[in-house]
Amino acid sequence: MTHRIKLTNVDLDYFVYSLRSQSLRSAVFNLAVGGKMYKAAGDVAAVKALADISLEINEGDRIALVGHNGSGKTTLLKVIAGIYHPTRGELEIDGDITSMIAINAGIDLEATGLRNIHKLGLMRRLPRKVIDTRVDAIAEFSGLGDFLHLPVRTYSAGMQARLMFSVATEFEADILVLDEWLSAGDADFVKKASLRMQKMVEEAKIVVLATHDLELVKRVCNRVCELKGGRIAFLGTTEDWLAYREAQAA
Fold first, then answer.
1. Could you tell me if residue 107 is inside a domain?
2. What share of the chain in percent tops pLDDT 70?
3. Can you give the residue range of the structural domain that contains 41?
4. Cα 115 to the center of its chain, rounded Å
5. Residues 88 and 165 both lie in one domain
6. pLDDT exceeds cutoff 70 at 206
7. What is the structure's pLDDT at 14?
8. Total domain count for the chain?
9. Does residue 103 belong to any structural domain of this protein?
10. What are the backbone dihedrals phi and psi of residue 233, each rounded to the nearest 5 degrees, phi first?
């Protein structure tokens, strides 16, 4: 099987509020998301978060999504991961995806850590029997111990991140989708998590990474897609992007 991600003329619109309630705060929101506001049907306004995105990512690619805050990086990741559905255009995915985008995406705060392990596994469409065989390994790697028997609402943000990371990286996937690199918990956990992440990156067929870290792009990625205002401003090799970046700064 050949693994591939292909987006063809993809748009994503956020429908945000009634035009009659438009205010200075609304205008600031428009600038913050980086898209362009327009009047949709009736009395509804919308922001075009992604516009005309055509991108093909093939087996072996490690592609960085770069750009300023609000440029559309995380939104594009969420489209690829299936969290958002394109308003227009087509998305084709060949391969299984694991994503680490939002720290608490899919977590039930009232359920225990153990219950959430099962829930997160089911969200990845894994059979219950497969999840059951990996619970002990996930629990051990997370280092959460007896906290796994408590509701997740009692966890700190770092503990939630450790739980999410441990589940997301326990199961193999063809395509790895990441927002930034790693910020899950204390220094000891980050160290062992970094080793696991490096192994996953090496073994994955495709890696899509949104990041601001220039050194990480140089070290890991062979391609770069730079976004500006929800549109592709640059798409090419990492070497060519570095040259483009220097030219833009000159």
1. no
2. 84
3. 4-95+211-249
4. 23
5. no
6. yes
7. 81
8. 2
9. no
10. -100, -25
Q: What is the pLDDT of residues 94-130, one digit of tens each?
A: 998 888 876 666 789 999 999 999 998 887 778 899 9
What is the phi/psi pair of residue 104, to 5°? -115, 20
Assigned token pair, 44: 């509804």
| CATH number for the domain that contains residue 226 | 3.40.50.300
Asked whether 49 and 230 are in contact (CB, 8 A), the reply is yes
Tell whether 54 and 133 lie within a shared domain: no
**φ, ψ of residue 114 in degrees (nearest 5):** -60, -40
Q: What are phi and psi of 193, to 5 degrees?
A: -65, -35
pLDDT at 217 > cutoff 60: yes
104: in domain: no
Q: Are residues 74 and 134 located together in one domain of the fold? A: no
Task: State yes or no: pLDDT of 209 exceeds 60.
Answer: yes
Q: Which of 222, 182, 223 is nearest to 200 (CA)?
A: 182
**Cα–Cα distances in angstroms (integers) from residue 113 to residues 41, 141, 150, 163, in the given order:** 43, 13, 6, 7
- Band (18; pLDDT cuts 50, 70, 90): low
First to last CA, the chain: 44
Q: Residue 72 in 3-state DSSP? A: coil
Residue carrying the six token digits 């918990």 = 185
Residues 139 and 194 placed together within one structural domain of the fold: yes
Give the CA distances from residue 102 to residues 51, 78, 178, 242, in Å, rounded to whole numbers and listed in that order: 23, 9, 9, 28
CA gyration radius, the chain: 19
Residues 15 and 67 in one domain: yes
